[in-house]
Every structure is written in C-alpha cells, then in structure tokens.
Amino acid sequence: SCQWYGNRIYCLGEQVMSIRVNVIGVGMTKFAKPGASDEYFEMARDAGLIALKDAGIQYSDVQQAYTGYVYGDSTCGQRAAYELGLTGIPVLNVNSNCSTGSSALYLARQAIEGGMAECVLVLGFEKMEKGALGSYFNDRESPMGKHLEVMIAEQGFNQAPVAAQMFGGAGREYMWQHGTKRETFAKIAEKARDHASRNPYALFSEKLSVDEIMASPDVFDPLTRFQCCPPTCGAGAAVLCSDAFAKKHGIKNPVYIAAQSMTTDFESTFNDKSMIKMVGYDMTRAAAKEVYEQAGVGPGDVQVVELHDCFTANELLTYEGLGLCDEGQAEQFIWDGDNTYGGKYVTNPSGGLLSKGHPLGATGLAQCTELVWQLRGTADKRQVEGARIALQHNLGLGGACVVTMYRKD
C-alpha cells in the first residue's frame, strides 16, 4: 500500500517518488495604515507582479491561483487575480482568519505535491478598517463562540478588544505559572521595533525602549498598546512550482518547502481550562512536531524564524510551542538575547506583526517573502548570517495553525 507523508510517497515503507515544491518568486507591498492604502485588488496586483517578475515567468505560465483575504465580499480573489490576467485558470478563495495567507500557501503546495499543477500563484491581501477586529454578522453564532466560553469561564469579560483579552489572558496565565515579569513581554516589542528599523516594508520603524513600551496605554494586562499588532493594509504573493517546471525555465537551486503542517483545534483547546491552550498553543506544538519529523531536522538546525506575534504574549508562548526553548524557559531565552541577532535564533527579522503590521490575508505571504529573502541572502540590513533553514509560524484563532520549513541547499 502507498501513502503520502510530507512531500514523499512511500510504498511498503520505501520512498518511491518525491515532488519537491519550490518557491521561485515572492513579493509584497509596503504595509499601510487603514485609510492610507490602495484598493485591495491594486495591492494584490502589485505584489503579484513583483512575485512573477522575481520568478521570471508570465501569468500565463500559472495554472492555478489561491487567494486569501478575510474582510471582503465573495470572489475578491478573482477580482484581484484578474488584474494579472484573464486566462481562465481556477482561482480559489481562502479565509482562515489570521492564518489565511499560509492556509492558501498550504493548498498551493498540496496542488503541486499532488501532481495537479506545476506552477501555482498564491496571493494574500487585506484592506482593513481602523480599530479592533470585529464581526459583521450579529444574527448567528460566532465561530469564536467556543473560545469565548473558555475565556469567560476562566477570566470573565472585559471592555478591552476581545483578541487582546484572549492573548493577554494567556500571558497572565503564563506569568502565574512561571513568575514572569511584565517587562519580559515589553522586551519582545523592543526587539520587534529594533528589527523593523532595518525593514523598509514595515509600518512602524521607530525604535522604542522597554520603558517607552511599558509606558504606552494599557490594553489588557500585561499588554500595552505597543505590544499589540496594528490593523494594517497590504498584500503579499508567492509563486510555487515543481522541480520539472523550475528546470524547464532555467531556475537553479531555488528555495524549497522542506516540510509543512496545518493543525486545527484539539479537545484540549476547550476542555483543559487553559487560556494558553485556547489561543492555540497545542496547535502550534503539534504542527511544529510534524514539520520537524517530516524534514528530519530539529529546532536547533533552524537559523531564522518568522512567527505569529499578534501580541507579545503570543510570541513568548510560541518560542516554547516551536521548541526554540524548553517550557518555562522563555523569559531566560528573551533576556539572554537568544531571539535576536547574535543569539540562537533570529525571530521576526522583518519586525513581525507588531511592527511590520498585520493585514490578515497578507501576513502569511509576507512571512514567506521575508524568509525566502533571508535564505537567498538578499535581506539587506536584516540578513541573518549563514541562513540555510527557516521556519514560519502563522496562527489564526477559530482555529488554524500553519508551520512551514524552508531550505536552500
């Protein structure tokens, strides 16, 4: 009997075929504040054209397109893709909340790995409004209803934005368990601003100290304003292809997807009475474990990471979920500088969601773009020396977590 595992087919335990998925083109727009961006299809067009040019191909070479966005009417993906060409190819729309871009990437990778296409375009875009995220549908059960039940049971309901209550509550739980200082969360934001100061695509590039971050308005303890990602507009894109397509087009030694996993909520999300688990810790841990097993390498082999820092509390939790440090050791990891240049890993060299911004549908593709640049050695002032293996983590409550490992040999 034969079955897929990772990007390989095994028959009776023996590998018989491998379809490698390469990332041959990436692109993104500079992120902008709500009200200061182009139309969603214009941003998507710009990112898509950059990615196609980067790949050295035409839109007519693309056989499928996967498009991701959260806030928009049906078939916005088609409207965006039509800016690149009217070739009649399948265009599919994806919405997985904050992990939308990586969910689209996951589907595109499967299409190539499964032999259904040789070249696929992934587009992620978002035109957001000012203020906290909210629902447009008040006449039906929220898809976050079960998550809200956990939050209300564990800590009640506050007037702060719901997402901040959820991730802030997870941060509080971690503090109670491990005696973590509030300044530790601010230290993550300080690092994010420092990294973003080297990124021309980032929304916020002004450096801030721990004291300045702590002094910003409280949102939901331990989170202050500068520890929360801002609503953002922007777009990102990636072109994926098979080895055969790359060879046909003279593309040599591209960055490729070495492993990828997508997980959704487990029983522990709702049954363990834990804010940490409710915001996706077990999804992260399970996806990372599968990726390491697929790739045959561990977290210690990774040099650079783009992870989902929607709030500083989530970045801290994700260090442990991805295995970058042991459980309960994140505070030491942060203050030792093992999350930045000169340490064990460089996390979010782009500045992350905290500083680069978080246009929901585009975030996963922007992470992909940064890591491809890092592995190519073209990340300019942000370049991580000797980067060969990169890890991406994109989380959406509701819920979905996508972890992807990239390599360049």
Q: What form results from the Cα inertia axes?
A: globular
Q: What order do the SSEs take from the amino end to the carboxyl end, as H and E? A: EEEEHEHEHEHHHHEEEHEHHHEHHEHHEE
Spatial order of the strands forming the largest sheet = 6-5-7-10-4-11-15-14-12-13
Overall structural class, as computed from helix and strand content, comes to alpha/beta
Query: Quick one: how many beta strands?
Result: 15
Low-confidence stretches: none
Number of discrete helical segments? 15
Range of helix content: 25-40%
Task: Determine the N-to-C terminus distance.
Answer: 32 Å
Rg: 20 Å
Average pLDDT for all residues = 95
Major sheet description: 10 strands, mixed
Q: Which percent range describes the beta-strand content? A: 15-25%
